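Weekend entry, working from home. Most of the wet-lab plans are on hold until the incubator is repaired, so I used the time to fold the two sequences that have been sitting in the queue since the last round of cloning. Logging both here for the record. First:
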Amino acid sequence: MERLDGSRESLNERRGDVLLVVNVASRCGLTPQYEGLVALHNKYADQGFTVLGFPCNQFGEQEPGSAEEIATFCSTTYGVDFPLFAKLEVNGEGRHPLYQTLTSVEDAEGVAGDVQWNFEKFLVSRDGATVRRFRPMVTPEDALLVAGIEEMLSV
């Protein structure tokens, strides 16, 4: 996977961590969720938890900036210190292979398939085998999401 800074990272390097994979956007009504994502990342990082942000411009073209613009916005506006990756597609013919796997997971209502909007969240266990899906309106502070993180960290 390509990071915003152009470096490469294999997600296999993250095996052993609990991950929250989120498609993010800088010009969305849900963009303030960055605050909660930063707080989650900081609260649980020392226990092996990491938020991974994947900018996506597929929803209302709400992530139009360059990699440098995205990185600057995220760090200066929200203090984002978790890994951000290069823009990718989460739906359609150009869907990135990571999201081909993630979108096969059902949400709490038993619905799989396309990502609905920016800030959809996928919680991935340390071994990568268990994935829970949280739709965009589920905030980072939501009790079910936090409980899921804590449960996966305790295993």
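Second, folded right after the first finished:
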Amino acid sequence: MPRPLIDLLWRDHPDAPAGGSRGPRASVSTGTVVAAAIRLADADGLGAVTVRRLAGELGVSTMSVYTHVNSRDDLLVLMADAVHGQLDRPSYGRLGWRARVRRLAEANLALLQAHPWLHEVRDDRTALGPGTIAKYDHELRALTPLGLDPVTCDAALTFVLDFVRAGARSLAPRPHAAELAEHWPEWGPRLAAYLGEDHPLAQEVGAAAGAAHDGATDPSFAWDFGLARVLDALAALT
């Protein structure tokens, strides 16, 4: 019978209770199962991560997979925590808080771009895992120079990470972005002709933004603009 989720999350800790049961030694480990699930999700999305497909990838029975994880939901928590544990956590050294927060935002953006399926794992139990806790501790240290009380510090970090998640979604590849950019010089004037005198403010601002970005939007510009505003908002707390 699989161990409780918290013990699975901390399975490599010296104080973790021994797993397993009587019988032949398992051909795969919990870590192997989690790593294989991450590879599937990275390649084909979270929908590809089924116990049946995972068993096929590992060359074991579905019941063998269930000896390592209680359920698919538990597996997703294990996957997210494992990926969180891979986040680069270099020392902040003597960096000021703005540079620290920018670094943590960019690191989280890179993590979400490498593993887009993380957007779909919204399970509070992930907070129990060693990878997630180590990530959280490192990120809080980015805010230490602000001198915030603990509750405000936690809320400030949530504020930053919520921005990063929104930004990562905007920066994700969009199926028709290249087509729109290619045809914008032709379609922009035609759109203006269709609109005539309607929605003048939308036309004025949209035309200026479109000319600046060679398209309807520029997610990279929006990221830089938004992150600067996030930093300005945090500065108001000092």
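Plan for Monday: verify the second prediction. The CA atoms of residues 113 and 172 lie 7 Å apart.
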